[in-house]
Write a structure and sequence with these properties.
The structure holds two protein chains of two kinds. By secondary structure, chain A is of the alpha+beta class. Chain A is built from ten helices and five strands. Chain A has two domains: about 10-80, Ubiquitin-like (UB roll); about 95-180, Orthogonal Bundle (Fumarate Reductase Iron-sulfur Protein, Chain B, domain 2). In chain A, about 40% of the residues lie in helices and about 10% in strands. A five-stranded mixed β-sheet of chain A has the order 2-1-5-3-4, covered by helices on one side. The longest helix of chain A is centred in the C-terminal third of the chain and has 16 residues, at about 170-185. In chain A, about 40% of the residues are buried. In chain B, α4 (about 110-120) runs parallel beside α7 (about 230-245), α5 (about 160-170) packs across α6 and α6 packs across α14. Chain B starts with 5 loop residues before the first strand and ends in a 7-residue tail after the last helix. The chains are: A alpha+beta, B alpha/beta. At the A-B interface, α1, α7, α8, α9 and α10 of A face α5, α6, α7 and α13 of B.
Chain lengths: ~230, ~550
């Protein structure tokens, strides 16, 4: 392919201008500029929320939020990272709680201060409907809150923007924990298998496999049928 | 300069190949998963691996010159770490002032480290007496990035024996059999623990039946998942529990050397504050290495799916106190890493996509591999197709890849499946203006997993008293090639065991006088072997500064 020459973009890292190739992510562009991360960089794959980045684009009043490892740079982008959200992690004990939204509100009473302004949703780099999830908790729909927030990477952008000072991502963790522990239906086949293993149903057979020769093991491996 | 025309994420010339993929799709949809392409025999597997898998490429490894694995072949990148000077000079460390005195020190906070902490606590260790030291934030680990799922043979059609056979066959029959047995026999109880104690939300049918997937190398539908955020869902539940219990956590504190005592036991570690650059000393009766793998060493220059801190620090620390490794010559390249666009190069395209019907096809839209082959075989076949057979698609950066026909997922399982079961994959590509429901994606093998590592027994004990190890940093259970979904199960089964046995040991262990003599000795061994180098290890983090910047760097303060 002939297009070897890179197109460049100008970005402003905390106000200071750097020219970087426009194919890079924000994270790569910061490294290209010469920084080496300790904070603000985690999984580099969009799963951990360490690289939350706020930015504006020239001539656009809006404040945007995205993950630096996933978002590509744009020309005239003003960026700052927010790798840590100051918030205390309240402690709870799922064993002593009930699977209700009341419990979530008891631990996070700020939820009732929600103004429905929706800046949390606007701020979410995962496009989660954060405010809807908070409202689901307020109206008692634990399941809805869980499903809406399953993709949360706890970057905390919502909580930094929230005028009611809710720490959404923590409340959602509690909601999911309660739902997962109490509201999902146990798998009969799982419980049965655990019982069978406990009773020693497979002991002889598995011991035989462990002690058999490699040749015989290869034979059995080849013979096994693939399901479906 | 003329800008290349991009249509919905792809340049025009690549779109022409997509049209060919679309042309053959209807015909391909008629075949079930199993008979898309015939399986290779064991002999054919070996042939394609020898010729095309990066592990079998010559000159990419060398024999280690020193230590317990002297003479063994390992990738140059690993040999470089082992044949390097320690970061500390023992003379600079004052062992008479201990900062943290604890029963159990856990190095690493991925799935293995966190399970260790929780089960040490369940086995009687007070949260006060457990300390987790971690290089970055709590939970910054590959565990969090795992998408496809976790294996447990819990369906009536399945059995621990089949799980065992699948593991052994994929691992080329050299696995530690006792470890493999332990994994398959304890797997179902881990799933129950996740649900009952942690509230993990697994994908289930209305009646509670687990939704499980058949993925490469397996003989049964066995991979449990939490959409395609499996690692995130389990890990955040583990993290939450650790924090709720008040277990001590030191973030941004890398272990840079182990501490021993005069009785030859491991007795803690020297930690290094990544930000203030000061050292702190931890004395511990049991030390658990749970530091994960080596993706960020970029073996053979491959891009990686791994998180920023995957630099195999634990291997280095363990080697310096005399622990032995196994299978360090084998590296896992995940068959389907993103090959396009450059911004997401090397990131994971989960195996679950293939499990749900997405088929790898070449630039002509032809099938060339059965997606149910084990990972190393499929990776080698993709490399062969891209290069030797020249049926790959070349991107503007010179990167080659084959298609993963993702639109098939919705066509086979019903519209909406991708949005429901693959939110992470959809989001990742959507950010790059590619809709994986409409268009296939370009993939090529990417550095994914450290198959080998520290030798342990089923109690997770290493050869050195006082030192336990669990997870990716260890070797044995997967032999020379890991199956999908077995890493998450491994870190839970052996993390749990590490917690139990580390707690047991801590109850009766007596420590002697602390020493860093092993570090002094290591320097001597380097000298005697004639190794002259400026390299120092562990490396802690990769350095992605451009040569342009590095060549002009001046260290002033």
């Amino acid at each position: 392919m002939s297009e070897k020459k890179k197109t460049m973009a100008t970005i402003y890292i905390m106000g200071k201008a750097y020219k970087v190739p426009s194919t890079l992510t924000i994270m790569e562009s910061i490294e290209y500029a010469g920084y080496r991360f300790i904070r603000g960089c985690g999984c580099r794959g969009g799963f951990c929320g360490a690289c939350t980045t706020f930015y504006r684009i020239k001539s656009d009043y809006k404040l945007y939020v995205d993950l630096a490892c996933q978002k590509r740079v744009e020309d005239e982008m003003y960026i700052v990272q927010l790798p840590f959200i100051p918030a205390e992690k309240p402690k709870w004990d799922l064993d002593k709680m009930k699977p209700t939204t009341d419990e979530v509100i008891r631990v996070f009473p700020e939820i009732t201060r929600c103004l429905s302004c929706n800046v949390c949703t606007e701020a979410c780099p995962q496009d989660i409907e954060v405010m809807r999830a908070i409202q689901a908790i307020r109206r008692g729909d634990l399941e809805d809150a869980v499903n809406l927030t399953f993709d949360c990477v706890a970057c905390g952008a919502c909580s930094i923007r929230c005028p009611a000072e809710i720490t959404h991502y923590q409340a959602f963790q509690l909601a999911r924990g309660l739902y997962g522990k109490y509201r999902t239906i146990p798998s009969k086949h799982l419980l049965k298998r655990i019982e069978e293993i406990k009773e020693g149903k497979f002991d002889d057979e598995i011991t035989r496999l462990v002690n058999t020769s490699t040749e015989k093991l290869e034979e059995e491996y080849k013979k096994r049928e693939v399901e479906k | 300069m003329k800008k290349m025309e991009i249509i919905e994420g792809y340049p025009k010339y690549i779109r022409e190949s997509i049209e060919l993929v679309e042309k053959t799709r209807d015909e391909r949809l008629k075949h079930t998963f199993k008979d898309t392409y015939r399986f290779l025999t064991l002999e054919e597997r070996n042939e394609v691996l020898l010729k095309h898998h990066p592990d079998y490429k010559r000159k990419m490894k060398r024999a280690v010159k020193i230590g317990p694995n002297k003479g063994d072949l390992v990738p140059h990148e690993i040999a470089d770490l082992l044949e390097a000077h320690p970061l500390i000079n023992p003379k600079d460390i004052d062992l008479s002032h201990i900062d943290y005195d604890t029963d159990i020190l856990i190095i690493g906070s991925g799935g293995a480290g966190l399970a260790t902490a929780l089960w040490a606590n369940k086995s009687g260790a007070d949260p006060e007496d457990i300390l987790i030291a971690t290089k970055l934030r709590l939970g910054d680990a590959n565990s969090k990035m795992s998408q496809a799922g976790i294996q447990a043979a819990d369906r009536p059609q399945d059995s621990p024996m089949l799980h065992y056979l699948d593991i052994m066959g994929a691992g080329h029959f050299v696995n530690d059999r006792e470890l493999a047995k332990t994994l398959v026999m304890e797997a179902p109880s881990i799933i129950k623990w996740h649900e009952d104690d942690l509230g993990v939300i697994y994908d289930k049918e209305q009646d509670g039946t687990m939704i499980e997937t058949l993925i490469g190398g397996l003989s049964r539908l066995r991979v449990h998942s939490c959409r395609d955020y499996t690692g995130l869902e389990i890990l955040r539940a583990l993290m939450d529990k650790v924090l709720n219990l008040g277990i001590n956590v030191l973030e941004f504190s890398s272990a840079i050397e182990l501490i021993m005592d005069n009785r030859g036991q491991v007795a803690g570690a020297v930690l290094w504050n990544m930000e203030t650059e000061e050292y702190t000393l931890v004395r511990a009766k049991s030390t658990v290495i749970a530091t994960g793998g080596f993706g960020r060493l970029h073996i053979q220059g491959y891009p990686t799916t791994n998180h920023y801190g995957s630099t195999s620090d634990g291997l280095v620390l363990a080697y310096r106190v005399g622990a032995k490794f196994r299978d360090m010559d084998s590296v896992q390249y995940h068959p389907t890493g993103a090959a396009y666009p450059p911004a997401i190069l090397g990131l994971l395209c989960t195996a679950k996509l293939r499990g749900q019907g997405a088929q790898p096809v070449n630039k002509h839209g032809e099938v060339f591999v059965n997606p149910l082959e084990p990972r190393d075989v499929e990776a080698a076949m993709i490399i062969r197709e891209s290069y030797e057979r020249n049926n790959g698609i070349e991107t503007q950066t010179g990167m080659r890849g084959v298609w993963l026909d993702t639109p098939m997922v919705d066509m086979i399982n019903g519209e909406g499946t991708i949005l429901k079961a693959f939110p992470a994959m959809f989001r990742q590509y959507n950010r790059q203006d590619i809709d994986i429901r409409k268009d296939p994606i370009l993939v090529f093998p990417t550095l994914h997993y450290q198959n080998g590592g520290i030798v342990i027994n089923a109690k997770t004990e290493t050869d050195i008293p006082g030192m336990f190890a669990a997870g990716e940093v260890t070797g044995g259970v997967h032999g020379k090639n890991r199956l999908v979904g077995n890493s998450w199960m491994e870190i839970q089964v052996f993390g749990r065991r590490a917690g139990i046995y580390a707690a047991e040991r801590a109850k009766k262990a007596k420590l002697g006088k602390l020493t860093l003599n092993h570090v002094v000795k290591y320097e001597k061994v380097l000298e005697e072997a004639g190794i002259k180098t400026n390299r120092r290890s562990p490396v802690l983090l990769p350095n992605y500064k451009e040569e342009r910047v590095l060549s002009h760097t001046i260290k002033v303060f």
